[in-house]
Automatic annotation (TrEMBL):
The keyword Signal applies. GO terms for cellular component: cell outer membrane. It holds the Pfam family MipA. This is MltA-interacting protein MipA. Residues 1-20 form the signal peptide. It comes from Duganella phyllosphaerae.
Length: 278
């Protein structure tokens, strides 16, 4: 059950732009405080950044949306909103990476498995330009990854600045999103993915110690459509360019690029009579 929940959070994080609340289709005060329903989808991602093996996940799970003044759990993510002005928003966001079993990843054969990483930390969002049907903002998230299954051991820091552009039609039927960013990890995080300790070195996999620096640049695209008042379908794809990664000399680094893709649906079963906070 824990793995399925983590998988859901990770998938929701990947798919969040595709299923985000439609732009200006309904003013915030007219949205319900909470909604419940079902979320389902399937996704394919690299086993880890730079891996030449892949992970696939498919699931259908309950969906809960809550639009409180501070606590927020909605189609754009899960977190606590600490500051909200016309131009700047500060919240606490979360992300999850899926585990990778060494038996399923050739490059890591005989090495310890990679556990799921639960990431959380502050995220600053700055609105750069708004129109009636589009938005452009800068996001500056700084997250602390915690290794699940190993006593919540801290695995460094990740910084992921990115530009996000959203657009949609006035009716809220269509929603599109594009984002471009960079992912930086400190030495500890990069060691988690790319270190090869001497006891795990082989003729084809020499010992290696990773350092801090750029992990990848990232481009994401997504599209969603409301097909009925309670139903929305979505698809997304993400391309990672790792050709300038600080640890591309690691024997665990096998590919200079990677892509993720997925599709799914949301079904809202019930909405509250109480209205959401601005």
């Amino acid at each position: 059950m824990k793995l399925r929940l983590l998988t859901a959070v990770m998938f929701f994080t990947l798919a969040a732009p595709a299923i985000a609340q439609e732009l200006d289709a309904t003013p915030a005060p007219d949205l319900p405080l909470w909604e419940v329903g079902l979320f389902g989808g399937a996704a394919s991602t690299p086993a880890y950044p730079g891996a030449d093996d892949r992970s696939q996940r498919a699931l259908v799970l309950p969906m809960v949306i809550y639009r409180g003044k501070v606590l927020r759990a909605d189609r754009s993510g899960i977190g606590a909103r600490l500051l909200n002005t016309d131009r700047v928003e500060l919240d606490i966001g979360f992300a999850v990476s899926l585990p990778a079993k060494s038996d399923d990843v050739g490059a890591r054969a005989g090495m310890p498995d990679l556990n799921s990483l639960l990431e959380f930390g502050p995220r600053l969002k700055v609105r750069l330009a708004d129109t009636e049907i589009s938005r452009l903002r800068l996001e500056l998230p700084l997250r602390v990854p915690l290794e699940l299954g190993n006593g919540f051991k801290r695995q460094g820091l990740v910084f992921e600045p990115r530009l996000v552009a959203e657009t949609g039609d006035r009716s809220g039927v269509w929603q599109a999103d594009a984002n471009l960013g960079m992912v930086f990890g400190n030495a500890r995080l990069n060691r988690y993915f790319y270190d090869v300790a001497p006891q795990y070195a082989t003729a084809d996999r020499p010992a290696y110690q990773a350092g801090a620096g750029l992990m990848m640049t990232r481009l994401g695209l997504s599209l969603s459509r409301r097909v009925a008042p309670d139903w929305r379908v979505f698809g997304f794809t993400r391309y990672d360019n790792l050709s300038h990664s600080a640890n591309r000399d690691s024997p665990l680094f096998r590919k200079n690029s990677g892509w993720s893709a997925g599709a799914g649906f949301t079904w809202t079963i019930h909405r509250s009579a109480a209205r959401a906070w601005e």
